[in-house]
Amino acid sequence: MSLVQTPVLEIEVEQDGPHDGRPLLLLHGWPDAPREWRPVAERLHERGWRTIVPTLRGSGVTRFRSADAPRDGRGVALAADAIDLLDALGLDRVPIAGHDWGARAAYTIAAVAPERPLRLSRWHFRINRAAPCRSARRPCRAFWYQWLLYLDAAARAVAADPIVFARLQWDTWSPPGWFDDDDFEVTARSFTNPDWVAITLNA
Fold this sequence. Notes:
single chain, 9 helices
């Protein structure tokens, strides 16, 4: 684990794999942490890849360098963070894989800086937000929190207990047996970042 300075952030980064391996940027989802990539990264290391897994803004020990910096959770902000990180590491074009928020950052990079990703792999569950719930019951159940967070009282509830809120997401989205309490508790340390709630609500 190392900390990398960029113009906006001090980013916690996990780099692993062969020292001379081909670099690959892996961007984690929400509410999650770099450890989501570890089973995948181990296989990549065996195939000669050197993985670079940053902790996204608002998570883990990644911190804003200025107290006045906007706590912006948009995809374009996440993409800028990734580009800044690559610049700080002296990397130009690398393959990028993203999950959930990481996917949003990855395809935003492809849109605003198409010269940067060597390849792009993304996984992101998308729905037609205009579709009525009766024709999209499963997505509506999965994305209940997005409607809820338009309420001021809901935002206050998330701020009061972000860990419980994150656990609700894991319970909603995960198939049976996908994780246990220990898995969640280790990952949930990432959600104690003082900016996690602000970034979550902004996003």
